[in-house]
Write a structure and sequence with these properties.
This protein has about 260 residues and is an alpha/beta fold. It has helices at about 1-5, 40-50, 85-100, 150-160, 190-205, 215-220, 250-265; strands at about 35-40, 55-60, 65-70, 75-80, 105-110, 120-130, 145, 165-175, 210, 225-235, 240-245.
Amino acid sequence: MKEDKMANVIAADKPTTAIGKQYHLETESGDLAPPCILVGDPGRAELIATTLFTGAKKVGDHRGLKSFTGKVGGMPISVVTTGMGSATTGIVLPEAVRSGARIFIRVGSCGTLWKEPKIGDSVICTGAVRLDGASENWAPIQYPAVADYRVVSKLTEAAKELGLPHFVGIGATTTCFNEGQARPDDNGYVPPRLRALHDELTQRGVLFYSMEEATLFVWCTTHGGYAAGAIDAIYANRQTNEFGVKGEEEAARIAILALQKMCRG
């Protein structure tokens, strides 16, 4: 009787569901295609799957982490929700790999620190300032958070081929959307140390703020060398103080074409 009970025990150091699916994504081996788009918003995952994939099938939907697999031009492709920020991204990545994903491109949103980009333009990330916290669990802070050069190259090629406006540069990955990106609280206060950091990042040419890139890059390079990159739609311009929800489909189209180029070699 005791042996029967032990046979059903799930290991605490690598939990799964009772039927062996990944604990958070509720996907299993083979559910995800090797080329995989990552998004923070489950609504964006559904938009990409229903608008840009053919034959899309929902393969996971748990805790708001929706996953879909379909095809683009005959190529199997998946889109997986990470949720917002480094903590959930660090949870999703190993589960996505166990479910079949091998090449990752994040399609997200960001706030640019440059004046020239317009709301809705895309930014392609080459590397990220590690203010995310999660990546320090995998490598010391001196370890660089860099995108795979092949993914950066294919994203840039794809953006040019599609004729879509884009910028290429370094991002800063923060744990906090508000004060962490030098947005004042409701009393108009930004801690001086964070204001000084914001000014330094701006002066040093950092292109944008987001909340996932450094986490993605460091995890992928330290956990098997998975190719990873990121493209974000600009929702905010911190120089002109403009905000708008625009450009996510264009960024997704660039990412999909880049994945096609990666898979063709």
